[in-house]
Amino acid sequence: MVITDVSELKEVVQKVLEEVEQRQNTGNACILALHGNLGAGKTTFTQTLARALGVEEMVTSPTFVIMKGYELSNQPFEKLIHIDAYRIEEIDEMRVLGFGSLLAEKGTIMCIEWAENIAELLPVNTIHVRFEIDQEKRIITIENGNS
User: Fold this and answer.
1) Are 137 and 106 in contact (CB under 8 A)?
2) What domains, with CATH codes, occur in the chain?
């Protein structure tokens, strides 16, 4: 998808949620791995997704705390987890955060910025969302698992 305005992210979120809907019965968390350079739109995508899921509080990138959680109600999911793996240097840092347990949580949707930093921990059915900047537009690619 190509977008030229942030308001068009709603359409991207809708497409991603359609993909997510097909995976809800796996018994595990649904993982969205977000890839792209600084300023490509990963956090803005997560904010748009959070609003679509009914999160009313301000969603900011958890760059320094690494992970934030948001309770959801009246949604197909019970919880949104937002992770920023930019500062992860050792994979064990994720284990300390209980990442393995989070992956097994049914009813959780997880957005992971800089997911390539923890690629070895991501399940095969992870949905990869790639953001590219091309002058005044963003090119967003959605890849289903095994990517």
Assistant:
1) no
2) 2-141 (3.40.50.300)
